[in-house]
Amino acid sequence: MRAIIGGGATVAIVMLAALPAAAAARPTVVPSSAERSTTVPAGGARSLTLTCRADAVALHAAPVRLPSGVRVAASDPGRDVRRWSLRFASVARRSRSVTATLRCVRLHLPVGVSGVTLRVSTTSRTKLRVPAGSSVQLPLRCAPGFIPAGQGVGAGTRAVSVSTAVPNGDGWVFRIENKGNSAATASARIRCLQRAVRGRRNGAITRLRFDVKHLAFSVPVRSGKSRSFTGSCAPDRFSLGTGISIDGTDDITLLRSFPLGSREGSWFLRNRGAAEPVRGYLLCLSRASRFG
Fold this sequence. Notes:
The strands form 6 sheets. A 7-stranded mixed sheet has the order 1-11-14-13-20-23-18, with no helix packed on it. The radius of gyration is 19 Å and the shape is globular. It has strands at residues 2-4, 10-17, 29-40, 45-51, 56-65, 70-76, 83-90, 96-107, 113-114, 117-130, 134-141, 146-155, 160-167, 171-178, 184-194, 196-201, 204-209, 212-221, 226-232, 237-246, 252-260, 264-271, 276-286. The protein is an all-beta fold. Strand 21 (252-260) and strand 22 (264-271) form a beta hairpin. It has one domain (2-211).
């Protein structure tokens, strides 16, 4: 059984002032990454907060290393535009090390441009009830004028997993499954970037428009096999959030996916049933946007 749930999400818009750059020749859009690790105690839980530099905003966070027996219990951008917190829960019999990555972006302003503010929005759905042996489809939309950048899903139990996390023009669509024998809860949050920012140059208004493309990669996952694959953005783009679409079977499980390096995304899956294709999604931010 599948249910579609929409609405009820709360939206918060937060701001961060961009600082002028020292040199006009430097790229205006400057993406970056932050990475941290922590140890989750046996049978316990541990939170990990990643932080962008002071003049940047956080766009997407994901686990890079997630050992067996450990799940993401919560993924929360929060109200601080620079930070993203992940909470890990473990049923393992010994402590396990986890690692996560955070994607950030900031602006170097050309000489003469001032009064620029970066804005991000966060749309959330918490305490989402997923009935036993079924799935729930959840669309989350960005605030008007914002484009999707990143996402995070938290699972209340090990039986909860994400089979769909697909970006579109105004948000993300999730399908969250519960393979357990009792109802469980989940949470989903998306981070969105204001499509166009404006400032002033010589007394006139000037604008920069962010350009984010959505790429899709279709790959087969053979029967009874684990599979990993990568996809890549164009050379002038930076990889932001990753997504997934698993169709036609409940036997393929997404273990983790995350942006990798400067241009790539990586996906890890397990298949306990028949061979099936899956699609990975990668959001690619242009580095070439300028104030015009």
